[in-house]
Amino acid sequence: MEEGHAHEITTDFIVPLRRSSKLWRFRVLRSDDKLSARLVTDAGDFLMYASVFLEAHRVDFHLYDPCQRELFDRERPAFTMGYNSTRDQWRLVQEQCAACQYASPHRSCASHGKQQVAIINHKQHSVGEGLSNVMEVIIPGLYQNDTCVVWCAMQGKGDLADAGFNTGETQTLVTRKPVWNEQVQSLVLDFKGRNIVSSAKNFQLALRQKPQHVICQYGKLSSTNFGLDFRYPLSVIQAFAAAMSTLFWT
């Protein structure tokens, strides 16, 4: 029963938020060593826990807080996100694929990359007198009923990172570039509704085809407290993963 309940929650975290004209507000509470974080609602209710494993080049995402000792299992994350040696490509997967979780092992994608949920690419661009961190997030597309395309190798899907922009089966979000502010001598973004502290980890994302329409924003509120606000078509895990991928941004 417990495993069944956990799977239902996983489904809730992988579907996009319902449509809204405004961003849904959340917060990321980061540990002092920067190697773990909790995603909470803006009111402080727990949603997800992330832990970073530097040697393994991996971030694990759990549906339970480590404080819930009877439920939390460090060996069974719901999602994992690996990154390459240059830390500029991050791959988010769901550990139990929605399409083949009940299939026999030889018919499952478990040994073929698992269900891919997002690819996050990083670069740096010069803006004015500063360097700006740039992010591109590739996510599976949505059907007309707002259900997600399940990116599974056993469903004939290749690598999400290699999916073309014009296939209609993926969506791409890109960072909105900050502008150089002479008065404060810094790159700045306008985070509406948030009192943001300057940080290299701050970013805003928009759909490639609508660059002025903010879909996600992540901004520092204090030393260990970040605002994470987002909306359709992102899911909770996709937004949280994008935030966690800024781990090495300086």
UniProtKB/TrEMBL annotation:
What InterPro entries does its record include?
Tubby-like_C, Tubby_C
Domain spans labelled Tubby C-terminal: 81-246
User: Coiled coil located at which positions?
Assistant: none
- Return the Gene3D superfamilies for the record: Tubby Protein, Chain A
Q: Which family does it belong to?
A: Belongs to the TUB family.
What is this protein's name? Answer: Tubby C-terminal domain-containing protein
Lineage, please? Answer: Eukaryota, Sar, Alveolata, Dinophyceae, Suessiales
